[in-house]
Amino acid sequence: MSKGEKIIQNYYANESIDYLEPSVTSRTIIDDYLYKRKPVIIRGLIDDWEASNKWSFSWFQEKYGNIYTNVFSSGNEAKSSQMRLKKMFAKMQQGEILYSSLYTKELFPILSPDYPLAGTILSDTKFNWLLDLPKTIHGDMNVIFIGNTGTGIKNHQDSMGTHLWSAQIMGTKRWIVSPPEESEFMYEGKADWLKREESIEKYPKFKEAKALDFILKTGEILILPVGWWHQTEILSDSISITHDLVNETNYHHYIDELNKSHQSDPKVETFYRASKSIQANWAAQLTQKKTTPIERIYYSISFEDLLEKYLIPHQAVILQNQINHWPALHKWNLDYFRERFGNAFIQYFHGHDDKSKKIRLRKYLETNFDQPHYSMWCLDEFYDILAEDFDTIEPLNNKEKDWILDLPKKELNALTWIFMGTKGSGIANHTDRLGQHVYSAQISGRKR
Asked: Is the model's pTM score more than 0.70?
């Protein structure tokens, strides 16, 4: 079983997409799919839309043939060129395979009555907070994709931290989607699902990838959570509408992306300015939990800033892009540990509050436990062997910054642990005993 298969099975429970009836509530989708980062398809929700009955290639050519749109043939929207719709349709009739992303900013007041959100969950401002933004930018949330058979969009992740919904107005489109935990296999989108063997030769880790592969049919709506990789292939001449989506489940992703990218991306800048005055109202709608959001830092941070802003005030923080060079990220897995370190002793727990027991690593990995289990492995004498696979992080990379590094080697080794666990396991609420700070590097999987 590949790593991608394990990710989809362990995190997302199945290898097929769920289908829901049009009576489904926005609360159900939020709780059962968006919080859990699971894609889902709704059937029958847009049967009454005028767009479903009248939109076609000939209709767009007749009504809006002089409108300019982005047209590309390579699957890469970044390589698109501006072209009038009528010229694009003429090229299609001559046999060219083309795809268009028609941004509806100017056309929105004219076209939106053909796909009225009113009366559906798509109009629920608790489901999509972006609907609270000024109507003058609602057109920036919509894209109409038009393409003939054989075209599509290359493998990619959407920007701006948004979920999306995509309504298939005409034709059929194949979607190949993978969760964000598979990012290391995607090579920034260079890996191509439609040329899998060729891609594996160029990008070897792509062989570990696994996707949900399904066909979106006329009248169906796909809801795809933030961060999911997706590639499409049009199976019959297609028109679809894609719409950005933000709510309590991805609010922090959205705000983080606005703050990070607004100065370099005009679209993001538009949403950044429009969202500023309403952020407090959105934040007040967040599900009240007895926890607070943790700050994520995407850039390189100095030791002085880490000390002043986080360590001295005792504020937790997540540092991203600090360990991308570690060999552990692509070497470490259960088979690797079993083969190389099977005789090492580790401590393991049944449940969060169970007392730990000692067991050899090989036996632990080969035991079929009847409930989620968790283990701790103090590296001790194995430290020197495993240390080639990881390193200190940049802001704490010498003895002046991390005084722990002054300790004798034996004691230093005893302060480094590897934690392993199955889905649903974990460790009980506690504080560490020595009064030290800790940093924990997530090598694979996800941990709350």
From this structure: no
